Amino acid sequence: MAEPVRVAILISGRGSNMLSLVRASRAADSPYQVVRVLSNVEDAPGLRLAAEEGVATWTRSHRGMKRAEFDALIDAELRAAQVELLALAGYMRLLSPEFIAGWEGRILNIHPSLLPLYKGLDTHQRAIEGGDTEAGCSVHVVTAELDDGPVIAQARVPILPGDTTDSLAERVLEEEHRLYAEALTEYARSLR
Ligand code: GRF
Prior knowledge:
Shape: globular
Number of helices: 6
Strand order of the largest sheet: 3-2-1-4-5-6-7
Distance between the termini: 10 Å
Bound molecules: 5-O-phosphono-beta-D-ribofuranosylamine
Structural class: alpha/beta
Order of helices and strands: EHEHEHEHEHEEH
Radius of gyration: 16 Å
Oligomer: single chain
């Protein structure tokens, strides 16, 4: 069997999607391995979770740096670790066009809406306020436009009467964990 695809995950916070991707990579037939977790937030709770899973972490605050300058640091770390594929998982910072161009077709993201609906923030609130009966999550390939690249997987959940943003977010998050691991597995397999 070919060597597993070398994946890095970028986070800024809690890291529950990151954890689910790391755990899925432990399956005997996984086509990917997680070689780094990187964060632009030095006290992101997800960093500790990654370390507990035995994954090497890298962190540096972006504060006071130009976007392209900070992204160049990330790029250097990824190249040094021979990373082949990047998964954004709650990475709350736009990536510079230069960075994205250097990783064309090699960055995936999970977004908590049924794209192309509700790009950006506050997706659940907007779905509830819009009177939608369904919400969900999408995995897409990252391009220079925010939350805009080709969608490769999507999962739907109902919006129930009385849902709050928290109750809906929880229902969607459960699907995110399953969907992202499946989509990354399939995508990594397609690269081998
Ligand atoms: C998830 O809802 C993800 O879709 C969004 O940010 C949240 C990150 O949560 N992009 P976590 O850090 O993976 O727990």
